[in-house]
Amino acid sequence: MNSSNKDDQSQDDQDADLDEVEPRLKYVRMQNDIKNILQNDAASCIAVHPKFLCLGSHMGKIHLLDHQGNNIQSKTLQAHSLTVNQVSIDQNGDYIASCCDKGKIFIYGLYTRENNNIINLERQIKSIALDPAFSKSGTSKRFITGDDKLMLYEKTFLSRLKLTVLSEAEGGVRSVAWAGQFVAWASDTGVRLYDLNARCSLGLMKWPRTPEAPPENYRCNLRWNGDRTLLIGWVDTVRICQIRKRSHQEMVNRNLPEFAVDPISTFQVDFYISGIAPLENQLVLLGCLKELSDKGTSQRPTLHVVEPKYQDFVDVSANFLGLRGYEAYNCNDYHLDCLPDENRFFIVSPKDIVVASLYDADDRIEWLLSHKKFEQALEAVTVNGGRDCKRHTLIYVGRVYLDHLLACGKYDEAGKLCLKVLGRDKKLWEEEVYKFARVHQLRSISSYLPRGDVTLDPLVYEMVLYEYLKMDPDGFLQLVKEWPAKLYTVAAVVNGVLEHLLVHNTRQNVLLEALAILYSHDGKYDKALAMYLKLRHKDVFQLIQKHQLYNAVYDMIEGLMDLDADRATQFFLEKDRVPSEVVVAKLQNNPRYLYLYLDALDKRDTKDSKGKYHGLLIRLYADYSRDKLLPLLRRSDNYPIQSALDICSQRQFYPEMVYLLGRIGNTSEALGLMTRELNDMESAIAFCQEHDDEELWNDLINYSLSNPENITFLLQKIGTYVDPRLMVQRIAPGMEIPGLKKALVKMMCDYNLQVSVQEGCKKILSNDYFNLHERLVKAHQKGLFVDDDQMCGACHRKVIVRDPRNLVVFYCKHLFHEDCLPDFEQIENCVICNPQKDKVIS
């Protein structure tokens, strides 16, 4: 590396922070013919027009070029013999004017020679400005020159030039700028604005005092932004002013010019200003650093984009420019001109021209990518749906970002980005997946692989599954659960799992579960069921229901009960999927599971199975749920009583034995169990009452005579059922009976009540008998005899003579049951013959 390159590298290191700021402008070195021109000559000034540009040289030549640096005129204009100080172009681009230190003024028409002119003033002319309307017909072909004073030249009658001194400048005119009717020029004192129509000065803006002297022969940079706004760059000070029209009252009262100049912004920068130009609501400043390099040479010039405030500014972007030979140049050797409508800026040094233009969407994306600002690049490429981009697409930027993330080891971020970038492009997906495969990070992209309308080659999904199988068995199981089987070849994955199980012993249960799912995907349900049962996994029920594998579970009934008895029982009973005979047969050797199933079956209480297994269920209830045994014995008739009695006797279930003994008629033994074993006098009394057997009452009384407390209890209860004298007469004299008096009173009250009820019943029966007999006698007396074979006139059934209250007899000899005549009490005539005869019996 040569010394110049080393210096550039050092400068690059110093400017690293500055280059990290996103630029607004891009730079292109002008090539083509300009390259040969500057090899033999050096640029001294430039003027740019939308049609072309004029480049003045130190050899006095003016080169007419297009914006790419190509000559547009076969012959170079040798306008001067010394350095061209300034070139001016009229608004239409028909005429150019130039000046030099020797005093020669050169005006040249590009399309006509009618107004060509060469004037020798024999004094240094530093600046010149053509009237923007110079080429228009009817104008006086004006132009302005600047040396120690500002001169206006106008063509008069007979094409003579009229000379007018506009100002005696202090220290000479350094630069001139003309826009519309206003001219601005800079001198050592400041900048003065002049109204050519009113031929009056609008004021002088004096230079601020600077702490250091400006460079020798420092050039003030003036630039009109439209017809009313003037941009001024002087040493390290920027000033923006605007021309406004005064109100009529203000002009009359104070006798002031029609226009006034108002300052808009004034601020200082830390470099010398070599050029100024507008960029929308911002400014472009070409500057040179004030300090020299460590070698005592000039540093590279900079181009700044700033946003002006009233007395301050914001530096939007700044770039160091690598112009050729910059080490030997100062701020006066650089020039800046622009095409405001195109936002293009021409930066000129003696041996180089660089064109700066606004970053378009593609330029911005390219800069962001080169500076690894990928998120911002992705955002930029999607603005306005990507319509602003010509060279870059979301896919291109996204893939560059993906490569960067993979290189940095950010695999999860890369996987997530694939979903955003690759969309539905199958080919791109497969290309990117193989990049992940090369670094063994397919797991990072697995969650984002397309699995809907667009799917990839099955091999891609199999690759992902194999990587999970080797590195993350749990993740492998999760993918097998989530991914549809159509994505990959199931048999190939099954073989991979089997091979892995032969070699590795870790996480076998997880892989066996995955294998069960794969078998079900492959239609091998018997293997899947066996695998689930081996794992004791409850998904076996879901598998059976999903694929209607009811016949396949006949040999697995006990295994399913062992896995989840409640769920299995519910499954067997639901819609009779498995016949009860099959379940009972398979569970004969496992009584507890048989109990759970038969208990649930009995609760379902279907007509087909009701009571079918009650004999078997009695033994199971006796073993596992005694509280359900007696209710079953009471509600069911579908069991062998003697077998049930034997079961209860073996286990000494006395309440159940009492019930069964009562059912088979062995009431005496049943009562003995209640009294001897259970000592339950309440139940014993109820039992005797239920069977209404005098022998049972005698047995109960005999049992109670040996126990005073039982005597008391029985005396209180027996009065309403039997004659209490039967018991009182058997009580041994002298026996102490607690609560005897109260018991006897209670007994006598109950007995009296019983006697009173019986007497009342007898009276009612006697009265009913005589009343009915009287009605029957009346019927006989009136000749109404009812034969046993006589039929009811409504239902045509034989009547029952023994109960005449059931009959209604009319004088016409027709008779009816009371129930067969609706509202018989309101009927007075026979419903058959309807004679006008009264009803006899009702």
TrEMBL record:
Composition-biased stretches (Acidic residues): 10-20
Keyword Metal-binding applies: yes
GO molecular function: zinc ion binding
GO cellular-component term (any): Golgi apparatus
GO annotation (BP), single: cellular response to starvation
Membrane topology, from the record: Peripheral membrane protein
Classification via PROSITE patterns: CHCR, ZF_RING_2
Transmembrane regions: none
The organism's place on the tree of life at top rank: Eukaryota
Intervals holding CHCR repeats: 556-713
Compartments where found: Endosome membrane; Late endosome membrane; Early endosome membrane; Lysosome membrane
InterPro entries: ARM-type_fold, Beta-prop_Vps41, Clathrin_H-chain/VPS_repeat, TPR-like_helical_dom_sf, Vps41, Vps41/Vps8, WD40/YVTN_repeat-like_dom_sf, WD40_repeat_dom_sf
Annotated family: Belongs to the VPS41 family.
Protein role: Plays a role in vesicle-mediated protein trafficking to lysosomal compartments including the endocytic membrane transport pathways.
Protein name: Vacuolar protein sorting-associated protein 41 homolog
Organism: Cotesia glomerata
Lineage: Eukaryota, Metazoa, Ecdysozoa, Arthropoda, Hexapoda
